[in-house]
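Lipoprotein: structure, please.
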Amino acid sequence: MKKILLVLMSIGLFILVACQSNFMPPLKKSDQVELTLAQKLTLLNEMNLSDVKSNALMISAKGDFKASAEPLPNVSNSSNKVLIQFEFDASAYISLGNEASESIMYFNLNKLLVNNEQKTSYLEYQNRIEATKSFLLLKNGYVYAQLNGSYKTSNQGNPVEESFNNKQMRSKEVVFTQNEYEILKSMFDSLEENLHFDISDSLLEQIKYVDKMITVYKTGDIHTIRLLITKEQVIEFITTTTENLPLPPEFKDYLKKLTFELRIELNQKKLSKIYLASDLLLEYSDSEMKNDVTLNGLQFMVDFNPVAPTIPSDSSLDKFEPRDNFISGLIRW
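Here you go.
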């Protein structure tokens, strides 16, 4: 059980270290393959990760998270309000060459919004960060950064604002050495060993409840392993599970909407793409406050055979301002 969970966690973490709108291609019912749980796990276990170790990859991600709290309509003597927002649209291209100087890591930030507002009877403040068309690039061992965005903070109605328009800086010295390259390369090389597991009768018995959540589709040489978790399945799990429940029983009353979908795409059994998408709505109230947590359209995609993006040229990067202490300079921005 621990091994299979490690597989799913490793895939999830690999995505997060990490979107065009709606990455996931449509699946046809006619392409669904009827397999037993053991056969589904065998297909996953036989996954070939050679492209992960030798090719570049592209990670794309976007999402919209909001959490809020406000007084219930019947509570007239409270002015407490809280709002937390986090929106992002980003991508990362990673290509490990034969050595450190040939490697490229290109992190693009198309959109970022971080907003925190709080109001009470004695306090009112806001912190808001926005960024667009910004990037962090590792090329030829040097790191380059470009920032377009703004920062706003307001305390008791006294705002302080700062904006950054096409700020550009680069490290003065090489920061990605052969030693860092070897460490990163070994992490990729160890993935295949860590993601394989033994399929036993004991394991199948322990995870039999996930069988109906996993479906397999086949189109030509491409297999798609799909894990779909819905609100109804979570509620059923909470209702029927009495031991070692990871969630409080009342969670089912708070859960208003949930879909979680993970797809693993194999091309001739080689890992080709990983997709993840989720929507969530939680609503719960105490005697005075109504609390909402919303996750709209969270999407991740990892492409292990990507088309390389257009990388800024060396001549344009030479114009970036060199900094002795690149990290502290980036933080001071």
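Notes: Confidence is low (pLDDT under 50) at residues 1-21.
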